[in-house]
Write a structure and sequence with these properties.
By secondary structure, the chain is α+β, with helices and mostly antiparallel strands. Helix content is 20%, strand content 28%. Helix 1 packs across helix 2.
Length: 261
């Protein structure tokens, strides 16, 4: 990892502006590898050097990785003039400039869609998970307006698997969707129970692309309507069932390794 200036590291870890950090360093309260350091431009190897402020060792972090159970009525962006954003849900400790870059959501969920949203400062991971070339699978739980009986479930599944001709929406052109997988309640031991006997208004859908309103448009193409949508997994990572809508936590080391491959 490249070396970073001491004052930049302190600033990116919440010790105030660059001017504030220079004052802190000049005060003699900052130690590098056990020695007092008053050089604001001192080059720090973030993987080796140890920084201490008074009696507290600074835990240097280049990147942050967060799992959020996105709630409805917030947008998956960093700024929005009309709506609350997912960044507004985070505590103040995440509202700083990190060494690895700006904290941002990986991909998007519609304002009325809930579920797994990842946020990070790691641009490489963002590219890996969002690049069409990588075909990262995303799985959603959908509730439909019109229950689908067994016969039509098989028809839906065949159409989605073969590559559905998705209808246009607004300024978004029609397109041929890549193969998608549907799993109905009777196919996974009724994990999602139904009130309609052999018919179900609930289904799991897995897709490997992310067109505008894709899941909703796919079901609209076959004459149905999605009334509720929740993303439950991205690639190998599933949403923590303990997170309520709007809640979040940092990823564990194992989860980060899982995503980074």
């Amino acid at each position: 990892m490249k070396k970073e200036r001491l004052d930049k590291i302190l600033s990116h870890h919440g010790f105030g502006s660059r001017k504030d950090c220079k004052s802190l360093i000049h005060s003699g309260r900052v130690f590098v590898n056990g020695e007092t350091c008053t050089d604001c431009e001192f080059p720090i190897d973030t993987e080796v050097d140890v920084i201490r402020i008074d009696d507290e060792v600074l835990q240097i972090r280049e990147h942050v990785y967060i799992m959020m159970n996105k709630c409805q009525d917030v947008v998956s962006s960093t700024k929005d003039g009309l709506h609350k954003t997912v960044l507004d849900l985070l505590s103040s400790e995440y509202k700083i400039n990190f060494l690895g870059g700006d904290l941002h959501p990986i991909g998007r969920l519609d304002i009325d869609t809930e579920g797994l949203l990842l946020l990070t400062t790691d641009g490489k991971l963002t590219h890996t998970l969002t690049s069409p070339k990588n075909h990262v699978v995303k799985t959603y739980y959908a509730r439909l307006k019109n229950p689908v009986d067994i016969a039509n479930q098989k028809e839906y599944s065949a159409l989605f698997s073969s590559g559905l001709n998705v209808i246009a929406e607004g300024h978004e052109e029609a397109f041929v969707a890549k193969s998608a997988t549907l799993v109905w309640p009777n196919e996974n031991k009724c994990e999602y129970l139904t009130e309609f006997g052999d018919a179900s208004s609930e289904v799991m859908i897995s897709i490997s692309e992310g067109k505008y309103h894709q899941v909703k448009r796919m079901f609209a193409t076959v004459g149905n309507e999605v009334v509720f949508l929740k993303r439950i997994s991205v690639g190998p990572l599933s949403l923590d069932a303990g997170l309520k809508p709007g809640e979040y936590r940092e990823l564990t080391a194992d989860e980060i390794r899982l995503l980074l491959g």
